Amino acid sequence: MTPISVERKTLRARLMNLWCQVLDVEESDIDNNPHFFDLGGDCVAAIRLVRAASDHGLVLDNITVFEHPELEVMASLCRETELKTTRVKVPLIEDIHTCTVQQDFVMKSYLKHGTYHNQMVFHFSGDETLLRESWKRIEQRNPILRTVLVQHGGKTVQVVIKGSSEWDQGSNLADYKSLNSKRIMGYGMPLLRFAIISQKDEEFLVWTYLQVVVDGWTKKLIFQDLTENFANAKSQAIRPPFKSFVKHINSIEHITAIAFWEQRLKGLKNIDIFYSSDIDHEPISHDSSQIIEEIPFSHRISPHSSRSITYSTIAHVAWALTISKHCGLKDIFFVSKRSGRQCALPGVESIIKALFDRFGPARYCQSLLVPQVPETDIFARDIRSMRDGESKILLSPDEEMSTMQNMALGTLIELRPRKEGRLDVVAEFDKEVMSEMRMRDLMRVYGGMLQDVAAASQNQHSTMTVEMALS
């Protein structure tokens, strides 16, 4: 029999101790080769065990817990991490707010699909202490950066804690990224963390976060504040509190909005335009494919012309016409994804918080695009007649701070304006429900429609009319 090494015995003892803490059992009640789930473990306990292992310097993931629940095997697959983490030992509650339906949706989507998760890497040079102090000042002024989501009484609430973000240290960027991507950000856990990786002659800053708290616009605001803090430690950007947005969103009458759209979409028969009814498949984010087509595109909006239409309108009209031509239908339905910064809330552009995109239903019926109204400020999943796998269209800003983890959608069309009259049309799609050949054909038609609609909108002799108002 091969003797067990001292290191393995130590790891087994440490892991045993964590089992006792998580499962609330005494070590004396555990037999020689215990089974995690036989002792009362479940999926929640598994998440707690992974977090506890990370807190105590051990590398362990959920897959290992579920596939190797025996203590001996789990301990053999467990290893120590080189990371040294500074954590808040006793996080005290500062405030509690209700959670928006969007935050709840994003968290559940992340835990189920791995979506809405970002890991950004920067080359770093300078004073690490200054960086940490600057960030600490920013997060103290912005409670959303110290927020965790907690399930209580069947509901999800957001809890602001006193303390600072996690800061890890390491010496190998590739190893850290691999390890970091497996560390869950679940309920009751910090939703962002940082790491300084010193590798040979280079240093890297790794910023990991969930889009429950940070979106692209928020990142720009944060970088602005960091820059100002580097130059002047006393700089204090005054921004509206994020709870004002929570109050605004929760004041929206979702029941009224749902009723409005159910009435507006009444009689629609072609919900599943692309996908046959016998397909029983849920889109998975990491299984999606991507196609990028660059097309010439030039459109000027004249402030003096009543005929000028926006880029947004062009994008939606062109997509409706593309679907109509592709499917031979005159009654088309799709979902429009819009920036959450467009809501009617004073100071919304300065709030540091993920304000989330809004999903608004759009219907194309006999050359008329049904206009959107304030009642569209709801989440697409709130409309019972909608299917998760249906097509969605997204307008992106000119510059992207980073690329977010793909969303679990059947088809997502994204427009990325480039300089010098060029436009990238990006399609994210699930091959289980849409073939690459079919997607390329749609992209070709859509590219042509974009140019045709843009040209028609600027042609004074064109008889084309568009009745569409996108809030």
Structural description of this entry:
It is a single chain. With 471 residues, this protein is of the alpha+beta class. It has three domains: 6-80, Non-ribosomal Peptide Synthetase Peptidyl Carrier Protein, Chain A (Orthogonal Bundle), CATH 1.10.1200.10; 92-239, Chloramphenicol Acetyltransferase (2-Layer Sandwich); 253-458, Chloramphenicol Acetyltransferase (2-Layer Sandwich), CATH 3.30.559.30. It is 33% helix and 22% strand. It contains twelve helices and 16 strands. The strands form four sheets. Strands 10-16-15-14-11-12-13 form a seven-stranded mixed beta sheet, covered by helices on one side. A hairpin with a 2-residue loop joins β5 and β6 (155-162). The model is unreliable at 82-91, 275-281, 302-306, 367-408 and 461-471 (pLDDT under 50). Residues 6-82 form the Carrier domain. Pfam families: Condensation (PF00668), PP-binding (PF00550).
- Overall pLDDT score: 72
- CATH structural class of the largest domain: Alpha Beta
CATH superfamily of the largest domain: Nonribosomal peptide synthetase, condensation domain
Strand order of the largest sheet: 10-16-15-14-11-12-13
Domain Carrier: 6-82
InterPro entries: ACP-like_sf (IPR036736), CAT-like_dom_sf (IPR023213), Condensation_dom (IPR001242), PP-bd_ACP (IPR009081)
Pfam families: Condensation, PP-binding
Organism: Heterodermia speciosa
